[in-house]
Amino acid sequence: MAEQRNLLIEIGTEEIPPGLLFSLATQVTESLDQHLKEAQLDHGPLHTFATPRRLAVQVQALSTQQPDRVQTRRGPALHAAFDGEGNPTRAAEGFARSCGVAVAALQKLETDKGVWLIHETVEPGQPTSALLPAMVEDILHSVPLPKRMRWGDRQSEFIRPVHWIVILLGDQVVPGQVLGISVGGQTRGHRFHAPDPLSLTSADDYVASLRSVKIMVDVEERRQQIRSQVTARTSSVDGQAVMDEALVDEVNALVEWPVALLGQFDRRFLNIPPEVLITTMQENQRYFPVVDRSGRLMPYFVTVANLESRDPSQVVAGNERVLRPRFSDAEFFWNQDRRRPLADRLHDLKQVVFQEKLGTVYEKSERIAALARFIARELGTDQDHAERAGRLAKCDLVTDMVQEFPELQGVMGRYYAEHDGEHPAVAQALLEQYRPRFAGDQLPASAVGQAVALADRLDSLIGGFVIGQQPSGNRDPYGLRRAALGVLRMFCELSLKLDLEMLLRQTAHQFPERLAAPGVVPTVFEFMMERLRGYLLDQGLPVDVFEAVLGVHPTQPLDFQSRARAVQGFLARPEATSLTGANKRIRNILRKADTQEDSHVDTELLETGAEQALAGRLAELASEVTPMMEAGLYDEALRRLAVLREPVDRYFDEIMVMVDDAAVRRNRLALLRNLGDLFLGVADLSRLQG
Asked: Is 393 inside a domain boundary?
């Protein structure tokens, strides 16, 4: 019986890009797990470790030997293997010869389809140690990487040069080569604190052994150390760190032995908008900004060094020295930009090309301004403010600050608009125009901001389709899928009762005659409906419910969502199955009738109690639920329509619709048409499954 030992694999490299480290480590672990399963090697949990200079996996209780494998070859059927006298046929002899045995050594296999000759061989399992080097090499070759590099005179490739390979099975080094490097049992400690090779005695002692040479190899332990140390440093000045999770992950991927240090900067820089300082610290320097209890920026930062310095004050001074000129540049941009009002920069936008075929950013701004005014009217907010905000929306793109920090577009627009004395609603809209920037991002809170944000995205959508740059596969050069989802989120999550089809027509109207494309509006509308499908399905809406609502072509996304939720709720009612089936039946009958649409019901031709009862109940409900539907009260309307179950079931049980009498037949079809049309006020229930 095979033993079980813990396995350690460590790949020592030059510094791996921080944005790739953790995903790469996970991929290596997952690939190793798959390789072990394919080799039929039993094992316990796998643990992933990673630092900038190493990828490692520890496997618990790995079997040291593959199980033997029984290989079965099936030959001819028994009736074809022997003749009537029991002598082997040429087929049996040929099969036995190919297996290297006599016919008498073959076995029989009985199945439901007959009896067959077979030959079984036992393939002995290999020692795990014999499999591991090739397995690791295959993993490193096959793991997906954005770019591979070679080093020295080797032909091997990886994300960064590989300097050492450790494979330990228990306390034994697994012999072999990986990427042309001999497998060993020596790792490397901290580049500065413990640069000499370190011999590992066992796979079990990996974490402790590396900690002894100033390497914190456990990713989660290192993350917690960073957070706790940063928190401790900021508490010394009665502040708290702005710990963006993405920055914590990036710093975690840059250090092997984190040491947090508190630095400070000149208070005069606090006169610059805090977003500028925070962006500089986070994006350029990977520092953690410090704020007070009310969220105001303090003149401090925390940097995380990758070593324990004998003189930490020198490390702090160096970081402060690096930060000072960056803040000075930002201060200069801030002062220079405010010398010109945003409105004066409109002319500069004429020199900035938005897209070769769509013209300049100035032309786009004019379109946004006109469309924002139109949307503001629909929203019942100030049209002048919306138009002004739309016209100024892109002016900060030509400021020095945004040229230096493109991620601050909109943010700086608001500050400069406030400085210029623009109305607060205009200034706020300049900030909110880019929301949402990504999935889950906050939406514009102000009505003027919503008008501008919608106008900007709708302009991009129509423009992209006009010039033939609509998304295709993974290709979406202008981010139109993201723009579409942003529009739909605003409609649905902000409860904006806007007609998408009408807004698309208005948007297309803003483009010059040379860019006229008659079919663009229905094409973009269909594209948006597909995005709405994904948006609602991600929230748990069944596909058939979406199709049922789509069948009645609502053009307001918010209205579409309300109908869909009402239908989804209706399906939980006991009457739903019967009434859904009735709608399917009505649709089939009307389609096969092939007659002119006629909804007039002649009460004189209602011959039976069943159709009289249905007609009466239908007339009563129509006057009741139609106003509900017009008011968007679809839940209530469907709850009221549920009472039709009994008269509808009775009608189909007792009535033959397609009778010979033409007048009676026409009357019965009209009654069914009225019944179906009443439900169509919410959705086409005939499209529902079941």
From this structure: yes
